[in-house]
Amino acid sequence: MTNWQVQEAKSRFSELVERVQSEGPQTITRHGAARAVLLSVADYQALKAQRPDFKAHLLGGPKLDDFNIPRDGDIGRPVEL
Q1: How many degrees, rounded to 5, is the angle at CA 51 between CA 49 and CA 56?
Q2: Is the N or C terminus of the chain more exposed, i.e. has fewer CB atoms within 10 Å?
Q3: Count of domains observed in the chain
Q4: CATH number of 21's domain
Q5: How far from 28 is each of 17, 32, 39, 59, CA to CA, in Å?
Q6: Is residue 38, in this structure, part of any structural domain at all?
Q7: Using an 8 Å Cβ cutoff, are 16 and 4 in contact?
């Protein structure tokens, strides 16, 4: 992955896009810290396809059909009102 400073990425944006297609994701930095990553559409769609939606996430959890909590037989003490 190649690092590009923000100013360089702005001035050479067409080249940046071409390198994303040929070399893969490109990192854009500001003051030496990574701030963004430019991906190809194919890479983005592949990442997005791997992530389950919220409903699938909830339904994919552990099955609780046999989950049983033993209850105490104590019914409490009598209370006068």
Answers
A1: 110
A2: C
A3: 1
A4: 3.40.1620.10
A5: 12, 9, 11, 37
A6: yes
A7: yes
Cα of 48 vs its chain's centroid, Å: 9
d(CA 14, CA 81): 82
pTM for this one? 0.60
SS3 label, residue 77: coil
Among candidates 13, 2, 11, which has minimal Cα distance to 37? Answer: 2
Give pLDDT tens digits for 25-70.
999 999 999 999 999 999 999 988 887 788 888 888 888 888 888 8
Report DSSP letters for 18-68, one per residue.
Answer: HHHHHH--EEEEETTEEEEEE--HHHHHHHHHHSPPHHHHHHTS---TT--
- What is the number of alpha carbons within 13 Å of residue 14 lying toward its C-beta? 0
